[in-house]
TrEMBL record:
<feature type="transmembrane region" description="Helical">
    <location>
        <begin position="55"/>
        <end position="74"/>
    </location>
</feature>
<dbReference type="InterPro" id="IPR052049">
    <property type="entry name" value="Electron_transfer_protein"/>
</dbReference>
<protein>
    <submittedName>
        <fullName>Polysulfide reductase NrfD</fullName>
    </submittedName>
</protein>
<keyword id="KW-1003">Cell membrane</keyword>
<feature type="transmembrane region" description="Helical">
    <location>
        <begin position="161"/>
        <end position="181"/>
    </location>
</feature>
<comment type="similarity">
    <text>Belongs to the NrfD family.</text>
</comment>
<feature type="transmembrane region" description="Helical">
    <location>
        <begin position="94"/>
        <end position="117"/>
    </location>
</feature>
<dbReference type="InterPro" id="IPR005614">
    <property type="entry name" value="NrfD-like"/>
</dbReference>
<feature type="transmembrane region" description="Helical">
    <location>
        <begin position="353"/>
        <end position="374"/>
    </location>
</feature>
<feature type="transmembrane region" description="Helical">
    <location>
        <begin position="306"/>
        <end position="333"/>
    </location>
</feature>
<keyword id="KW-0472">Membrane</keyword>
<keyword id="KW-0812">Transmembrane</keyword>
<keyword id="KW-1133">Transmembrane helix</keyword>
<dbReference type="Pfam" id="PF03916">
    <property type="entry name" value="NrfD"/>
</dbReference>
<feature type="transmembrane region" description="Helical">
    <location>
        <begin position="277"/>
        <end position="294"/>
    </location>
</feature>
<feature type="transmembrane region" description="Helical">
    <location>
        <begin position="193"/>
        <end position="215"/>
    </location>
</feature>
<feature type="transmembrane region" description="Helical">
    <location>
        <begin position="236"/>
        <end position="257"/>
    </location>
</feature>
Length: 385
């Protein structure tokens, strides 16, 4: 329907969709960041068998953190004034809080990268043959060339402290992005269950991204994949996704039982959100099935990798559909409950599909650049005799 709804001879004004696909991408990126940081924290504090993932997760998180600002900058009417968030902080503003939390996340991540790669940076500064790269790595050493065992132990302690701070910042960043979704929400989304479901969905998306990157980078560097890493991360992703799916299902069942205004909203919105809802339900069940049953029972390594890849890609699509429902779906329902606004993203323009596609691809464009200077693995070179 159009921006106005006709009903029995009256014209009911409908609010327009102010936040489009770019604001869907922002909480989507933040969800992935939260999940990746959580997997890194699990590897650092708990599961030592995931140690091989640490460098990969850290270098892969940086492009997503840098790209998280892009949707907001493109959506702003005056993007050149965005820096004022940092020079004139206002603690009563959601955007200002986002700026503070974002900088905390960014700087702790950069600190983790430096301490995690410090020995590699020193070795490259001493042994690099390219004079430009040699100068770059010498600058990155910050004048610290100590590679003794005592210095390495100090590095590990500092990394643990930074990991704790980064984990808190990432979860706070997820909460701020959740606020963006509910500011214009209707009763379906404005519940106490939504923040928890939002976070668990993000944890599943971040874990799925880690699985995909691990499979891709082990193939790229010729490093043997460790089945225990894939099994452990897949197990976490399964429970994260199960919790998100269960919470949203319980929330819907609760509204159906109460039959209040939120249930009327759900029935009205289901026609407009049929596709993302179907993706969310069917995709979640498919991913849960692959992760829990097929992946563990399949003995063939290549088949195991194939099913994990399919499940991880499905989860990323499912979580994007969840964010679409939260941001776009929350704005479609007319406050009179007599109609809804139709929304089709434009192809061109600052908030069009092409711009959104560029933002979605931005982390994957940055990733090869970051990994060129900070490779997560040593490339295996096969020697023919």
């Amino acid at each position: 329907m159009s921006a106005t709804t006709l009903f029995e001879g009256y014209v009911y004004p409908n609010h327009e969709v102010f936040w489009g696909i770019l604001i869907v991408i922002y909480p989507y990126f933040v969800s992935i960041i939260t999940g990746m940081v959580t997997i890194y924290a699990i590897a650092e504090f708990w599961k030592k068998e995931l140690k091989d993932l640490e460098k990969l997760v850290v270098v892969s998180s940086l492009p997503f953190v840098l790209s998280a600002l892009m949707p907001l900058l493109l959506d702003l009417g005056q993007p050149q004034r965005a820096f004022e968030l940092y020079v004139t902080p206002n603690f009563s503003s959601v955007m200002a809080v986002f700026g503070i939390v974002y900088l905390t996340e960014l700087f702790t991540l950069l600190g983790e990268m430096w301490f995690l790669f410090r020995i590699d940076i020193v070795n490259r500064a001493l042994n690099e043959r390219n004079p430009v790269l040699k100068l770059l790595y010498r600058i990155l050493t910050l004048g610290v060339y100590d590679t003794s065992e005592e210095a390495r132990n100090v590095d590990k302690k500092v990394i643990k402290i930074l990991t704790g701070i980064e984990l808190i910042a990432a979860w706070c960043l997820s909460y701020v992005s959740f606020l963006f979704g509910v500011v214009k929400s209707n009763p379906w989304w404005n519940t106490t269950i939504l923040p928890v479901s939002f976070v668990f969905g993000g944890l599943a998306a971040g874990g799925a991204m880690v699985l995909l990157l691990y499979i891709a980078f082990t193939a790229r560097y010729g490093v043997g994949r460790k089945p225990e890493i894939i099994a452990t991360v897949s197990n976490y992703v399964f429970y994260f996704l199960l919790a998100a799916f269960a919470l949203e299902t319980i929330n819907t069942i609760l509204y159906a039982y109460k039959e209040d205004i939120a249930w009327a909203v759900i029935k009205l919105a289901s026609t407009q959100l049929a596709i993302p809802l179907a993706i969310q339900v069917i995709g979640s069940l498919e991913a849960l099935l692959f992760l829990r049953y097929i992946c563990y029972k399949c003995r063939n390594g290549s088949m195991n990798t194939l099913f994990v890849t399919i499940a991880a890609l499905t989860i990323l699509v499912v979580v994007f559909a969840m964010r679409w429902n939260m941001v776009i779906g929350a704005q479609l329902i007319d406050y009179s409950l007599r109609g809804f606004v139709s929304y089709t993203p434009p192809l061109l323009g600052r908030e069009g599909l092409l711009a959104a596609l560029g933002v979605l691809l931005a982390p994957f464009v940055m990733l090869p650049i970051v990994t060129y200077f900070f490779p997560p693995y040593e490339k295996k070179v096969s020697v023919k005799l």
